[in-house]
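Shape matters. Shown next:

___
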Amino acid sequence: MSAVGSSNPGYVVARVRARRGQLYGDEEYRKLVRMSPAEIARFMEESTYESAINALGSRHGGVDLVEYALNQNLAVQFEAILEWSEGELYDLVARYLRKFDAWNLKTVIRGVYTGAGREAVEADLIRAGEFDDRQIRRLLDADSIEAVVEAAEETIYDEPLRAAYPAFEESDVLVPLENAVDRAFYDRLLTGLPGGEPVRQYEAFLEAEVDFRNAANALRLARSGAEIDPAEYFIDGGQLFTRTSLARLARNLDELVEYVAGSQYADDLGPALRELEEADSLIAFEQATDAALLAYADKLGTIHPVSVTPVISYILAKEREVENIRAIARGKEAGLSADAIESELVIT
């Protein structure tokens, strides 16, 4: 892997397209929702998850085995993409994969907040970003929210988290902390992008991701009952909202969806926006936006097929596969029906 030298998108795109063809489809998901966690693990062993299942099978079983295998496979897949990438492409992919540092940090914060055990929190971590083992251990060792903030002192999240901590103490709501993490990630992601039309298309996708993150965060905050103005937690970088418009629209899901459906995303997002119109909860809204972003990345990838966008599209698709399998395994463990589990899947 190298951030220096010529870029090689043609080579990397060809390899990720081959891997995308190995992702599970609707037929596999229909099979999985009718299996027990142990059967799911055996099914995974016959696919790209074979090495992870074999390596972890002696230490874990059932849902735990599925969880650990999913996260290990995800990290291995994304590390391979970085190893293949060179020059500008490496930099763009590495920037985006830092989202897993943000994921891991928020996962630890939520785990400490809810009193989850260390092992349960660690099972949800995805080691595909830049945090090394030492940084992960520091986060996992934290026994309070304040300690988590202190453990992030050597990262880009240090100052944002320290600034947000008083608001968390006052409200006892995680939104200020989670939003601080998201803001730091997107600020670094969107700053200093190179020029050129293919990168501009990639930037358009990132702007859409920020727009939908703003919408979901505002809805979550509005429904928390906390006396916090959604405008205070606006993430810069999108195109769809201003601080004022987001704060107003967050109070009404129907108005928010109508606004998105009449926006610049309407032509590109088509069917996914219709799913948004039918969303009757925050979870459904977030599932629909995930599907919309994946559809948008796929569409942009056809405009510039030899660029970073198809690579990012694969990363999203692989994430969705992992999240879907995780939802199935957890749903089966909880005794949910097949129909209830299927309603939680993100399928495009």
Observations:
- The chain has 19 helices and no strands.
- The radius of gyration is 20 Å.
